[in-house]
Amino acid sequence: MPNPLKLSLVEQLLSLSLGLTLLGLVVAWKWEGIGGAFVLGGIACFALVNHGIKMNAVFAPLLIGGLLYLLCWWRTRKRVISAHDELSGGMNSTAGLLEGHALSWPLGPHGRDGARPSKMDSSHHL
Question: More exposed terminus of the chain, fewer Cβ within 10 Å: N or C?
Answer without folding.
Answer: N
